[in-house]
Amino acid sequence: AASPTAMGCGAGGRGRLLLTVAAVLTLLTRPPGSWGARIIGGHQVTPHSRPYMASVRFKGEHFCGGFLLRARWVVSAAHCFRDRDPRADLVVLGAHALRVAEPTQQVLGVSAVVSHPDYQPATHANDICLLGGGLNSSAVLGPAVGLLKLPRSGARPPRAGTLCRVAGWGSVSDFEDQPPGLMEAEVRVLGLDACNRSWTGRLKPAMLCTHSEDSQRRGFCSADSGGPLVCRNRAHGLVSFSGLWCGDPKTPDVYTQVSAFVSWIWDVVRQRPHGPQPSPPGVPAGAA
Ligand SMILES: *[C@@H]1O[C@H](CO)[C@@H](O)[C@H](O)[C@H]1NC(C)=O
Ligand SMILES: *[C@@H]1O[C@H](CO)[C@@H](O)[C@H](O)[C@H]1NC(C)=O
User: Which SMART domains match (predicted)?
Assistant: First the structure.
C-alpha cells in the first residue's frame, strides 16, 4: 500500500521557486540532485530487501544512489561526480534508514570514479560511472548487502509498458524531510519516441524513460540519481534526470539505458581487477 509519507516533490515548491527564480529556466533539464527530495508516489520497502542499493555520500551527506555490481564495484550516474574529488566520497551499503547506526551498514571509501568517457553534461548522454575497485576495500556480501545483475550484453531495453521499480533515499535538501527509510516506486517503461516528444526532441540514444501507470505522480526525484531502475531483477536503468516537478507526466523520468553500456562496464572491471588507480581530478579515467 502506498505510504502517506510519500508526498510529491512539488509540495512546498512555490517557496523554493521564489528562492531560486533565476535558476528556473535551467532547471527544466537539470539532473535531479538538489531539487525536491525523494522517490514519489512510492512506499517504504521492507528493510534490506534491496541489498544492492548503495548510498553515495559526500562529506557525510547522502547525495546519490547507486548499486553494487561486484564486491568492489558500484555503478552510479556520472553527473553525481562532476567536479568532485572522489576522495571525499563514501559508499554506504546495507542501509535502510540512513541516519540510524544500523549494524548491517558497511562504509567504504571511494578512491576513484570511472566516468564514461563520452559522458556529456549538457545533454546527459552516457550518464554512467563506476566507483570501483575505487572502493578502498571489498564489500562483505550477506543478507543485507548483495549484488544486482546487469542486463545481458546487447539486450533490448524493456518494452514500453513493462513494470519496473526505482528506489532511493531522496535528498537532505533544506526544504524536505528525509524519508524514513529506503523508498521505492513502481513505474512503467515509456517508449523512447513518445518520451522524446515530451522532452521536445532533446533525448539522446541509450536513454530509457518511465512514467506513472495511473494518474498518481510516481518516479524519482533529487538525490535518487544513480540508483537503479530494476526490471525483471536486472538493472536496466540508472536515474539520470527529470523535469522541474518530480513525477510530472509532461517531463517523464529519464534513465541511462544500462544495456547499452554492459560491454563498457565489463571492460573496465576486467582491466582493473584490483580496482583503478586513483586518477588525477579532471582526467576521465578508463577512457579506453
Ligand atoms: C576506507 O575508507 C573509509 C573512509 O575513508 C575508512 O573509514 C576506512 O577505514 C577505509 N578502509 C580501508 C580498508 O582502508
Ligand atoms: C529525439 O528527437 C529529435 C528531434 O526529432 C531527434 O533528433 C533525436 O534523435 C531523437 N532522439 C532519440 C533518442 O530518438
Answer: Tryp_SPc
